[in-house]
Amino acid sequence: MILNWLKDPRAHFPPQLDGDLVKDGVCGIFIAEKLGVSAPTLSEHMRVLIAAGLVRAKRAKGWTFYKRDEDGLKAARRLVAFCELPWHPDCLSPERNRRPINTASVIQARRPVHTGSVARWRRYEPWLGELRQLLR
Length: 136
Prior knowledge:
Blueprint: H1 2-7, H2 9-12, E1 26-27, H3 28-35, H4 39-51, E2 55-60, E3 63-68, H5 70-82, H6 106-109, H7 129-135
Helix pairs in contact: 3-4
């Protein structure tokens, strides 16, 4: 949802007093209100999207503005294509999928993308040469 809203911010958010919706990004308060969550909850969600390279944040006048990181989104699409999987916008929102899960990772599959495993890929680095080159 958030990434779709940020794709066309003028269609989804009211004009801002500080900062242009497209050029500077959308104020986090507007996103939190639209989601119906508190500002701290939104900050945590956005931190995850920033860590994943899908969103950029900009601080100005005590506010945080968010906008899509189109390069990060392209990298996500390249990764999915490299794995020979079809791209679907729901790839960016796995926590919203309600299909039955029959694996040991059922609990993990219902969580939003997080940063708890950010550097764990390094143990597999010797086998990731071609994939790493693709993502550069």
